[in-house]
Amino acid sequence: MKLAPDWTSTLGQAGHDAVHRSRVGPPLVRVLRGTEADLSSHALVTVDDDRVRLRLPNFDTKR
Q1: DSSP of 6-56, one letter per residue?
Q2: pLDDT of 43
Q3: Is 0.85 topped by the overall pTM?
Q4: Whole-number pLDDT of residue 27
Q5: Residue 3: which region, alpha, beta or left (left: phi > 0; alpha: psi -120 to 50)?
Q6: Distance separating alpha carbons of residues 31 and 33, to the nearest angstrom
Q7: How many other CB atoms sit within 10 Å of the CB of residue 53?
Q8: Is the Cβ–Cβ distance between 45 and 53 less than 8 Å?
Q9: Is 5 helix (H, G, I), strand (E, B) or coil?
Q10: What pLDDT does residue 50 have?
């Protein structure tokens, strides 16, 4: 998963760390498999099997 630097800054440190780890892939999946984590109330990470979904509600992409 590649996100622009300004995306990670909107998520706070927890979101930045999760996005950074997700570039590695499997380590993030092993930690979060079957769980959901609220990242600074801005993003929701859901992990099912080997897929990581990062939802960014109300995110303004034109910043």
Answers
A1: HHHHHTHHHHHHHHHHHTT-HHHHHHHTT-EEEETTTEEEEEETTEEEEE-
A2: 55
A3: no
A4: 46
A5: beta
A6: 6
A7: 11
A8: yes
A9: helix
A10: 64
Residues across the chain: 63
* pLDDT tens per residue across all 63 residues of the chain: 554 444 444 455 555 565 555 544 444 444 444 444 444 444 566 666 666 666 655 555 554
Cα dihedral 30→40→16→59 (10° resolution): 110
How does DSSP classify residue 2?
-
Give the pLDDT of residue 13.
57
| 42 neighbors 53 (Cβ within 8 angstroms) | no
Rounded CA separation 14/53 (Å): 15
Pairing, β 51-55 against β 36-39: unpaired
